[in-house]
Write a structure and sequence with these properties.
This protein is of the alpha/beta class. It has one domain: Phosphatidylinositol (PI) phosphodiesterase (TIM Barrel), CATH 3.20.20. The protein contains 8 helices and 9 strands. It has an 8-stranded parallel beta barrel with strand order 1-2-4-5-6-7-8-9, surrounded by 7 helices. α8 links the parallel β8 and β9. α1 packs parallel to α3. Bound molecules: SN-glycerol-3-phosphate and calcium ion. The site of SN-glycerol-3-phosphate has 11 residues, from β2. The site of SN-glycerol-3-phosphate (G3P) has 11 residues, from β2.
């Protein structure tokens, strides 16, 4: 039987519309994705905002660290001269359970606020834990989520070593590892899966690599061009 691969848009549909914006997320939804990956930071007034970098310089007309500005200050900025920086809640409202959401804890101290938002949407808006996977390169953030909410599906990001990611995944009862595709072989994909972990790989953009990842039997492919999956 052919395995079913989850098709996930990276930062929305980064290949088509400015990353991590509502418009990019809408584009990914238009493609009929199974999931969307976004990055979050905690801003100075305590809300989670969706942006990849720790600083504003590359993507917006602002400068300096995201974590130093309040939400109202961040809302005055433009992404690519056009779009607003969304909050995590605005992203959840747009997705509205139409697909899975992979929240990458990019910034520091994002664990508690993320648990709070996810729990609020589960309690009041009909979402379930299965609609989420919370991933990070930062072990400390993942440990914080693990200690505050044992039901949260966790994914261990790595661009270094699949086996080390598995070893850490065991300590926080993660459901998945999220390796860069360049780390993968058919053998280590099987090794991770045989130990009970899903293998969610990123950022796979060209057709040839997408096909190769499919032959490895990965569980999820995260792509800037989700329509290619
Ligand atoms: O979550 C997968 C991928 O987004 C991790 O790397 O740098 O694109 O956030 P980055
Ligand atoms: Ca990311």
């Amino acid at each position: 039987m052919k395995n079913v691969i989850i098709k996930m848009g990276h930062r929305g549909a980064k290949g088509y519309v400015a990353e991590n914006t509502i418009e990019s997320i809408k584009k990914a939804l238009d493609f009929g994705v199974d999931g969307i990956e976004i990055d979050v930071h905690l801003c100075a007034s305590g809300e989670l905002v969706v942006l990849h970098d720790f600083t504003l310089d590359r993507m917006t007309n602002g400068t300096g660290e995201v974590s130093k500005l309040s939400l109202s200050e961040l809302k005055q900025l433009k992404v690519n001269n056009e779009f607003l920086i969304p909050t995590l809640e605005e992203v959840l409202d747009i997705i509205d359970k139409k697909c899975l959401l992979n929240i990458e804890l990019k910034g520091r101290n994002t664990a508690a606020a993320t648990c709070e938002v996810v729990q609020k949407y589960i309690k009041t808006k009909g979402w379930s834990y299965q609609d989420f996977v919370v991933s990070s390169f930062q072990h400390h953030e993942l440990e914080d989520v693990f200690h505050s909410d044992k039901n949260m599906p966790l994914g261990v990001l790595t661009k270094a070593n699949v086996d080390e990611a598995i070893e850490f995944a065991k300590t926080i009862n993660a459901v998945a590892i999220h390796p860069n595709f360049a780390l993968l072989t058919p053998e280590n994909v099987k090794r991770a899966q045989s130990q009970g972990y899903k293998v969610n790989t990123w950022t796979v953009n060209d057709h040839e690599t997408i096909e190769r990842m499919k032959t490895y039997g990965v569980d999820t492919i995260i792509s800037d061009f989700p329509d290619r999956l």
